[in-house]
Design a protein that fits this description.
38% of the residues lie in helices and 17% in strands. It is of the alpha/beta class. The protein has a ten-stranded mixed sheet with strand order 1-2-3-5-4-6-7-8-9-10, sandwiched between helices. The longest helix is centred in the first third of the chain and has 15 residues, at 22-36.
Length: 332
């Protein structure tokens, strides 16, 4: 793999955080963990084919030389908040973690009007090409799993294995009106996943965690919203509308890469029904792991179990003729 091209990948400038902000202090701490793990922040300005002015912020080793694993975050806190606990074990397993901000999250943005996960996938792939990373595994959590799935479908020559964590790619728009989710329409889904008030953050945390914090003071929640949840509100809302509107499983391509599906047993955002749909859709190419006593935020509640399964999946011998069948494993 080639080193990151200096003309396309340069250190990202960040706004100066408030000195009294708990969220900003936590964010600085997580950034230091990324730096300590040997990753560096870059902003990759992509050519016009990916949209004029499109910029992807990435945390990556300065010279990726080992097996690359692309980690895609979901809605909610930034990529550093979602993936920091995974870095030491992934690196110890001989992997090079590459952690981008998806468009309209963190420091990634684009003036292009496309809000589809296909455009997200194309943009991330262009960033990987700019870094000289031609082959990689991809892990996606929730919304990041939608993008990971599209990357696997669009770039089978590049994506060797996939891990989808609580990624409801098999949902249909009609599921909302049928009562499968805690929301009944796309507008309500956007209000849930893009909270703008402390009460909305509390609702989201209680839906995504099996054991949410018993006390969530409004001052801390307002600080979190101001620091991490106030950018690109309109664009994120459009992402959700594009993701859900007219979505049908019959339009979903079938990916061929060996795929690990991980799900929190008590997921209330994307219920277990979607995990079983995905397992049936992928058939012999997939394996489902159900994590006990975990919800939609299984990657945070049970990070050790999730990381262990990711590493085991990525270290399995690759064979064109491998057939693992449909297996379901429960973690306690």
């Amino acid at each position: 793999m080639a080193p990151l091209p200096a003309q396309e990948a340069q250190p990202t400038r960040r706004r100066r955080p408030c000195i009294l902000s708990f969220t900003a202090a936590r964010d600085r701490c997580l950034r230091r963990r990324f730096l300590s793990a040997g990753l560096r922040p870059f902003s990759i300005r992509l050519p016009s084919a990916a949209g004029p002015g499109t910029t992807v912020h990435v945390w990556a080793p300065p010279r990726p030389g080992r097996r690359a694993v692309l980690l895609l975050h979901g809605f909610g806190a930034s990529a550093t908040w979602q993936w920091a606990p995974y870095l030491p074990k992934l690196i110890a397993a001989g992997l090079d973690p590459i952690v981008p901000d998806l468009l309209f999250f963190g420091a990634s943005s684009s003036p292009a009007p496309d809000r589809s996960e296909i455009f997200q996938a194309r943009t991330v792939k262009s960033a990987m090409d700019a870094m000289g990373v031609r082959r990689f595994a991809v892990v996606g959590v929730s919304y990041g799993g939608f993008v990971a799935y599209r990357m696997a479908a669009m770039y089978p020559e590049a994506v060797e294995r996939t891990v989808l964590v609580c990624a409801g790619v098999c949902l249909e728009e009609s599921d909302l009106s049928k009562g499968l989710f805690p929301v009944s329409d796309v507008g309500e889904a956007a209000k849930l996943l893009i909270p703008r008030r402390p009460a909305e953050v509390r609702r989201l945390v209680r839906l995504t965690f099996v054991r949410p914090p018993p006390i969530m003071p409004s001052c801390f929640l307002k600080d979190y919203i101001n620091v991490l949840g106030s950018d690109h509100i309109q664009e994120k809302t459009e992402l959700l509308h594009t993701l859900i509107n007219d979505r049908k499983i019959s339009d979903l391509p079938k990916i061929r890469q060996p795929t690990l599906i991980m799900w929190g047993e008590k997921d209330q955002v994307f219920p277990m029904e979607l995990a079983h749909r995905l397992e049936r859709h992928l058939a012999e190419n997939s394996r489902l792991v159900v994590v006990k006593n975990a919800g939609h935020a299984v990657n945070l509640e049970k990070d050790k179990e999730v990381c262990k399964n990711i590493i085991e999946h990525l270290q399995e011998p690759v064979s064109k003729d491998e057939s693992r069948g449909e297996k379901e494993v429960e973690l306690h």
